[in-house]
Amino acid sequence: MKGSCSGITREHYRLADENQQKPTEMSESTAFRQMDEKHVSVDVHLMLWSPKFDLVALSNVQGEIIMAESLVSDSPGDDVKVTSLAWRPDGKVLAVSYSCGKINLYDIENTEVLHTIELQGQITSLTWINQAIPEGNTWSPEPYLEDDFSQFLPKLLPLSKSYSPLNTKGTASNTHILNHIDKIHTAAVSQDLRSLVIIAEVSHESADKSMFKILTYNTSLVASRDKELRMLALKCGQVASLIAYLQLTVQQMSESWEDILMEMDSKLLKFAQEKKATGSGTVSNDFLELLLFGIPSLELKSFLLHELTDKGLKKLGISIETSYTNIQKLVINHLQVVSQSLLYHLSELRGMSQWYDRFGVLGMSTKHIQEAVTAVGSFVLKTSELQQVIDDSIKNFKAFFCWLYVAILQLSDEKVPAELSKMTQHDINFVAQFLTDNFDHFSVDEEDSISELTEKRSGFKLEKVGQYLKKEDLHYPPHISANPWIQVMRSSLHIRDSDIVYPVKSSSSLVQLQESVEEIIKSALTQPSIVIGQSLSCISSIDLFTKDKSEENFRMKSCQFTCNEKKVVYTVFTSSPAPCDKFYILRQPTCSKGASLQTQGVSVRIGQLTHDTNHDDSSDQTLQP
Length: 625
Fold this sequence. Notes:
It holds the Pfam family ANAPC4. InterPro entries: APC4, Apc4-like_WD40_dom, APC4_long_dom, WD40/YVTN_repeat-like_dom_sf, WD40_repeat_dom_sf. The protein has a four-stranded antiparallel β-sheet with strand order 3-4-5-6, with no helix packed on it. It has a four-stranded antiparallel β-sheet with strand order 7-8-9-10, with no helix packed on it. It has two domains: about 160-220 and about 545-625, no CATH class; about 230-530, no CATH class. The protein is an alpha+beta fold. The radius of gyration is 34 Å and the shape is elongated. It contains 14 helices and 18 strands. Helix 2 packs antiparallel against helix 13.
């Protein structure tokens, strides 16, 4: 379709009279009627009607999505095309797949991306499964209860920033049952969930040809465990959303931490350069001498009075304290809450997996899920550890800035407020600890030049906090050997090896444990897809037609839908390049018995609907079961 999109509504479709001999004299009442016409500036690639609303979704050759004459989404990248569209049965969400392997779910109300999934390889078919309920019946989760986790878990607070959504990576192991297939053009699951019907392109005995087949797979495991599969899917969806929230929280913590480094670097880098140029020691030595003897070096005195100043110190202190507070809030209000929620849902999945004949048959492994629970438990302990480190760092930071502010006032011969003039031994220890933890690293090697110092991204290091946000072991792990609980754990193998006791990963950073949690959870929750895939069995294979591989521009047009009342699946497809005047309709039962023998088909030629026994069309294809 090029240049325009005709808005012909379904209720106005009319087929020409079968017995009409002169199409040019066809009456207006029996012809197709064009109701409207919309012009678009770019060639339309795909279009799909909403199942509930008078709305059509379009994708153009530039990879853009358009609905109701409004641009919904740009292409996610250069040369990335839309490969398939699928409406949710209620018409409120549109699923869009791209050639890069990405799937976006769009809310049609505000066009926001609800969720993103990334798979390996190009996506060629996208179908939203809709389970039909027998007439007169209502769906019920019995014998199970609806998940009421909202009564037990606190609501996740919205994050102040928005980043890329969660990416769920696909694995090649999930497609091993179809490894003889070159390409899947369409796929549909029957509304009773008993069969999967796909149109596939497979290798032909002739190397220069491709064979198109319709394959039917028995999905009785999905049909017999539909309620269990729904519960599992909802739980996995909750876990995926929580992992995405966890990723964004850690990302914002890292950004707040980097803000502190930039603030300190902006003030102290010039001073460090001067110290390097004169070769008169380091930044940390000057501050320690001021703390111990009360006498600053000439360089430090000049820096405090003319570069930093008391007003500049106040501003810097407020900025750094704000960043510290942001990290602390992210840990308490977001990180700990989401990790505890994640632990709750995984614990429920562990309980479900122990009911083997209901959930275990779907591939839920108690062993793998227990490993995920243990990993998240260790992560929860690490968040509490980080919170304590942040509390200590804020205490040291405030003591340092208070001491430095008093020192600047004294050097300026200004009056020091009475509440700031008194400094206890604890305060001195806090200041010394702050200098040791941070300024010890604000230096360069002797062979480094001033230009090399300037090129360094950061000299100031918040090691006590920042080490938790790096993908490496902690340089300053907490001292836990004197902890009574740790001593009990080490002395009792029975307690230490218990599933209900979470190990303390004292040397691992928060980011390391986060990556470990994501990998272990992914491994545990991909098992059902593997088991369900292995349970599929091909019960029917029908040859449709062959094509030369040299026809690179050939793009098969097809669609599939089911009729639950008659327990059949309909497949409509074309075998010639568009535009063409003929299409095929196949009807197959959803039951697994004799699917290939009961398959019925008909070819329809537009413009020649009358039955002509003398017509000989060499292009007609015989369907071979």
